Amino acid sequence: MNVDQSEIAKFSALAHRWWDPNSEFKPLHAINPLRLNWIKTFIDLDGKKVLDVGCGGGILAESISQSGADTTGIDLSDKALKVAELHALEVGANLTYRSISAEALAEEQPEQYDVVTCMEMLEHVPDPASVVRACATLCKPGGTLFFSTLNRSPKSYLFAIIGAEYILKLLPKGTHEYTKFIKPSELVAFTRHAGLELLGMKGLSYNPITQVYSLNNDLDVNYMIAVRK
Protein backbone atom coordinates (compact mmCIF):
# COMPACT_ATOMS: atom_id res chain seq x y z
CA MET A 1 0.00 0.00 0.00
CA ASN A 2 1.18 3.52 -0.82
CA VAL A 3 1.41 4.70 2.78
CA ASP A 4 4.09 5.86 5.21
CA GLN A 5 3.10 4.54 8.64
CA SER A 6 5.25 7.12 10.41
CA GLU A 7 3.22 9.87 8.69
CA ILE A 8 -0.06 8.22 9.76
CA ALA A 9 1.22 7.97 13.34
CA LYS A 10 2.33 11.60 13.32
CA PHE A 11 -1.10 12.94 12.43
CA SER A 12 -3.00 10.35 14.47
CA ALA A 13 -1.20 11.55 17.59
CA LEU A 14 -2.52 15.08 16.97
CA ALA A 15 -6.00 14.03 15.81
CA HIS A 16 -7.81 15.22 18.95
CA ARG A 17 -6.60 18.78 18.25
CA TRP A 18 -7.74 18.89 14.60
CA TRP A 19 -10.69 21.24 15.15
CA ASP A 20 -8.95 23.54 17.64
CA PRO A 21 -8.34 26.70 15.56
CA ASN A 22 -5.40 27.62 17.81
CA SER A 23 -3.70 24.23 17.64
CA GLU A 24 -1.06 22.82 15.32
CA PHE A 25 -3.78 22.83 12.67
CA LYS A 26 -4.31 26.59 12.84
CA PRO A 27 -2.74 27.06 9.36
CA LEU A 28 -5.25 24.61 7.85
CA HIS A 29 -8.14 26.51 9.40
CA ALA A 30 -6.70 29.78 8.09
CA ILE A 31 -6.21 28.63 4.50
CA ASN A 32 -9.40 26.59 4.21
CA PRO A 33 -11.65 29.49 3.08
CA LEU A 34 -9.01 30.50 0.51
CA ARG A 35 -8.80 26.97 -0.88
CA LEU A 36 -12.57 26.54 -0.95
CA ASN A 37 -13.19 29.86 -2.69
CA TRP A 38 -10.50 29.08 -5.28
CA ILE A 39 -12.15 25.72 -6.00
CA LYS A 40 -15.46 27.52 -6.47
CA THR A 41 -13.96 29.76 -9.15
CA PHE A 42 -13.75 26.61 -11.32
CA ILE A 43 -16.93 24.77 -10.39
CA ASP A 44 -20.23 25.20 -8.54
CA LEU A 45 -20.12 22.54 -5.84
CA ASP A 46 -23.86 22.51 -5.20
CA GLY A 47 -25.26 19.10 -6.15
CA LYS A 48 -21.88 17.71 -7.21
CA LYS A 49 -20.46 14.40 -6.02
CA VAL A 50 -17.12 15.25 -4.41
CA LEU A 51 -14.28 13.15 -3.00
CA ASP A 52 -11.65 14.59 -0.65
CA VAL A 53 -8.55 12.38 -0.61
CA GLY A 54 -6.44 12.57 2.54
CA CYS A 55 -9.21 14.42 4.37
CA GLY A 56 -7.68 14.13 7.85
CA GLY A 57 -10.03 15.61 10.43
CA GLY A 58 -12.38 16.89 7.74
CA ILE A 59 -11.77 20.65 7.63
CA LEU A 60 -12.02 20.93 3.83
CA ALA A 61 -14.45 18.01 3.35
CA GLU A 62 -16.93 19.49 5.80
CA SER A 63 -16.86 22.92 4.15
CA ILE A 64 -17.36 21.29 0.74
CA SER A 65 -20.35 19.42 2.14
CA GLN A 66 -21.77 22.66 3.53
CA SER A 67 -21.46 24.11 0.01
CA GLY A 68 -24.15 21.66 -1.12
CA ALA A 69 -22.01 18.79 -2.40
CA ASP A 70 -22.55 15.07 -1.83
CA THR A 71 -19.20 14.64 -0.10
CA THR A 72 -17.00 11.69 0.82
CA GLY A 73 -13.70 12.03 2.68
CA ILE A 74 -11.10 9.28 2.79
CA ASP A 75 -7.98 8.89 4.91
CA LEU A 76 -5.84 6.15 6.42
CA SER A 77 -5.72 7.65 9.92
CA ASP A 78 -8.63 6.08 11.76
CA LYS A 79 -8.18 8.51 14.67
CA ALA A 80 -8.43 11.51 12.37
CA LEU A 81 -11.54 10.04 10.74
CA LYS A 82 -13.19 9.51 14.15
CA VAL A 83 -12.57 13.17 14.94
CA ALA A 84 -14.00 14.15 11.55
CA GLU A 85 -17.12 12.04 12.11
CA LEU A 86 -17.69 13.45 15.61
CA HIS A 87 -17.34 17.04 14.42
CA ALA A 88 -19.75 16.41 11.55
CA LEU A 89 -22.29 15.10 14.08
CA GLU A 90 -21.77 18.14 16.31
CA VAL A 91 -22.45 20.66 13.53
CA GLY A 92 -24.99 18.60 11.60
CA ALA A 93 -22.84 18.19 8.49
CA ASN A 94 -24.01 15.44 6.15
CA LEU A 95 -21.07 13.61 4.61
CA THR A 96 -19.41 10.20 4.52
CA TYR A 97 -15.95 9.22 5.79
CA ARG A 98 -14.07 6.03 4.93
CA SER A 99 -10.75 4.50 5.92
CA ILE A 100 -9.42 3.52 2.50
CA SER A 101 -6.58 4.48 0.18
CA ALA A 102 -7.17 6.40 -3.04
CA GLU A 103 -5.78 3.48 -5.02
CA ALA A 104 -8.16 0.96 -3.40
CA LEU A 105 -11.16 3.23 -3.86
CA ALA A 106 -10.20 3.79 -7.50
CA GLU A 107 -10.51 0.04 -8.11
CA GLU A 108 -13.87 0.01 -6.34
CA GLN A 109 -15.44 3.21 -7.71
CA PRO A 110 -13.85 4.33 -11.01
CA GLU A 111 -15.25 7.49 -12.63
CA GLN A 112 -17.81 8.14 -9.88
CA TYR A 113 -16.97 11.70 -8.78
CA ASP A 114 -17.56 15.10 -10.37
CA VAL A 115 -14.80 16.67 -8.28
CA VAL A 116 -11.75 15.18 -6.54
CA THR A 117 -9.63 17.18 -4.11
CA CYS A 118 -6.29 16.13 -2.63
CA MET A 119 -4.85 18.91 -0.49
CA GLU A 120 -1.66 18.94 1.59
CA MET A 121 -1.37 15.17 1.28
CA LEU A 122 0.91 14.27 -1.65
CA GLU A 123 4.06 15.25 0.26
CA HIS A 124 3.21 12.66 2.92
CA VAL A 125 3.11 9.50 0.74
CA PRO A 126 5.95 7.45 -0.77
CA ASP A 127 4.54 7.59 -4.33
CA PRO A 128 2.58 10.80 -5.01
CA ALA A 129 2.21 10.00 -8.71
CA SER A 130 0.25 6.87 -7.75
CA VAL A 131 -2.22 9.00 -5.78
CA VAL A 132 -2.62 11.38 -8.73
CA ARG A 133 -3.36 8.44 -11.04
CA ALA A 134 -5.91 7.07 -8.59
CA CYS A 135 -7.59 10.47 -8.30
CA ALA A 136 -7.79 10.65 -12.09
CA THR A 137 -9.41 7.21 -12.20
CA LEU A 138 -11.95 8.22 -9.54
CA CYS A 139 -13.00 11.34 -11.45
CA LYS A 140 -15.71 11.30 -14.12
CA PRO A 141 -14.70 12.31 -17.65
CA GLY A 142 -15.02 16.09 -17.79
CA GLY A 143 -14.66 16.31 -14.02
CA THR A 144 -12.35 18.67 -12.13
CA LEU A 145 -9.52 17.80 -9.74
CA PHE A 146 -7.58 19.95 -7.30
CA PHE A 147 -4.19 19.23 -5.74
CA SER A 148 -2.08 21.25 -3.31
CA THR A 149 1.38 20.61 -1.93
CA LEU A 150 4.72 22.27 -1.14
CA ASN A 151 7.32 23.26 -3.70
CA ARG A 152 10.82 21.81 -3.29
CA SER A 153 12.69 25.11 -3.37
CA PRO A 154 15.15 26.96 -1.12
CA LYS A 155 12.40 29.47 -0.25
CA SER A 156 10.07 26.65 0.72
CA TYR A 157 12.70 25.10 3.00
CA LEU A 158 13.23 28.49 4.63
CA PHE A 159 9.54 29.35 5.06
CA ALA A 160 7.78 25.98 5.48
CA ILE A 161 10.33 24.22 7.66
CA ILE A 162 12.74 26.67 9.31
CA GLY A 163 10.17 29.45 9.59
CA ALA A 164 6.92 27.57 10.24
CA GLU A 165 8.27 24.71 12.36
CA TYR A 166 11.26 26.18 14.21
CA ILE A 167 10.91 29.97 14.40
CA LEU A 168 7.18 30.80 14.29
CA LYS A 169 6.19 27.35 15.63
CA LEU A 170 3.09 27.31 13.43
CA LEU A 171 3.60 23.55 12.97
CA PRO A 172 5.21 20.79 15.09
CA LYS A 173 8.84 20.08 14.28
CA GLY A 174 9.10 17.25 11.79
CA THR A 175 5.72 17.92 10.16
CA HIS A 176 7.38 18.14 6.75
CA GLU A 177 10.35 16.51 5.05
CA TYR A 178 11.97 18.73 2.44
CA THR A 179 12.96 15.82 0.19
CA LYS A 180 9.27 14.90 -0.17
CA PHE A 181 8.26 18.34 -1.44
CA ILE A 182 7.11 18.40 -5.08
CA LYS A 183 8.03 20.98 -7.70
CA PRO A 184 5.13 22.38 -9.75
CA SER A 185 6.72 20.97 -12.92
CA GLU A 186 6.76 17.51 -11.33
CA LEU A 187 3.14 17.69 -10.19
CA VAL A 188 2.01 18.94 -13.59
CA ALA A 189 3.89 16.01 -15.16
CA PHE A 190 2.11 13.58 -12.80
CA THR A 191 -1.27 14.99 -13.86
CA ARG A 192 -0.38 15.01 -17.56
CA HIS A 193 0.70 11.38 -17.43
CA ALA A 194 -2.63 10.59 -15.74
CA GLY A 195 -4.49 12.12 -18.68
CA LEU A 196 -5.42 15.39 -16.99
CA GLU A 197 -5.44 18.88 -18.50
CA LEU A 198 -4.07 21.83 -16.54
CA LEU A 199 -6.64 24.58 -15.85
CA GLY A 200 -4.79 26.85 -13.44
CA MET A 201 -2.25 27.24 -10.63
CA LYS A 202 -2.19 29.45 -7.55
CA GLY A 203 0.25 30.12 -4.74
CA LEU A 204 -0.52 30.49 -1.04
CA SER A 205 1.62 32.86 1.01
CA TYR A 206 1.85 33.72 4.72
CA ASN A 207 2.74 37.16 6.07
CA PRO A 208 4.35 36.64 9.51
CA ILE A 209 3.80 40.30 10.44
CA THR A 210 0.06 40.47 9.72
CA GLN A 211 -0.34 36.70 10.32
CA VAL A 212 -2.55 36.55 7.25
CA TYR A 213 -2.55 34.02 4.39
CA SER A 214 -3.31 35.14 0.85
CA LEU A 215 -3.62 33.74 -2.66
CA ASN A 216 -1.15 34.99 -5.26
CA ASN A 217 0.95 33.83 -8.20
CA ASP A 218 4.01 32.96 -6.09
CA LEU A 219 4.41 29.17 -6.35
CA ASP A 220 7.68 29.02 -4.41
CA VAL A 221 6.21 27.59 -1.19
CA ASN A 222 2.57 26.39 -0.99
CA TYR A 223 0.70 26.04 -4.24
CA MET A 224 -2.48 24.53 -5.72
CA ILE A 225 -3.32 23.31 -9.19
CA ALA A 226 -6.64 22.67 -10.90
CA VAL A 227 -6.93 20.10 -13.68
CA ARG A 228 -9.69 18.57 -15.79
CA LYS A 229 -10.13 14.98 -16.90
Automatic annotation (TrEMBL):
GO molecular function (one): 3-demethylubiquinol 3-O-methyltransferase activity
Protein EC: 2.1.1.222, 2.1.1.64
Keyword S-adenosyl-L-methionine tagged: yes
GO biological-process terms attached to the record: methylation
Top-level taxonomic group: Bacteria
Listed pathway(s): Cofactor biosynthesis; ubiquinone biosynthesis
Residues involved in S-adenosyl-L-methionine binding: R35, G54, D75, M119
Keywords carried by this UniProt record: Methyltransferase, S-adenosyl-L-methionine, Transferase, Ubiquinone, Ubiquinone biosynthesis
Reaction equations catalysed: a 3-(all-trans-polyprenyl)benzene-1,2-diol + S-adenosyl-L-methionine = a 2-methoxy-6-(all-trans-polyprenyl)phenol + S-adenosyl-L-homocysteine + H(+); a 3-demethylubiquinol + S-adenosyl-L-methionine = a ubiquinol + S-adenosyl-L-homocysteine + H(+)
CDD domains attached to this UniProt entry: AdoMet_MTases
Signal peptide: none
Enzyme class, broadest EC rank: transferase
Entry keyword Transferase: yes
Function: O-methyltransferase that catalyzes the 2 O-methylation steps in the ubiquinone biosynthetic pathway.
Family label: Belongs to the methyltransferase superfamily. UbiG/COQ3 family.
NCBIfam families from the UniProt entry: UbiG (TIGR01983)
Protein's UniProt name: Ubiquinone biosynthesis O-methyltransferase
Organism of derivation: Polynucleobacter asymbioticus (strain DSM 18221 / CIP 109841 / QLW-P1DMWA-1)
Taxonomic lineage of the native organism: Bacteria, Pseudomonadati, Pseudomonadota, Betaproteobacteria, Burkholderiales
Gene for this chain: ubiG
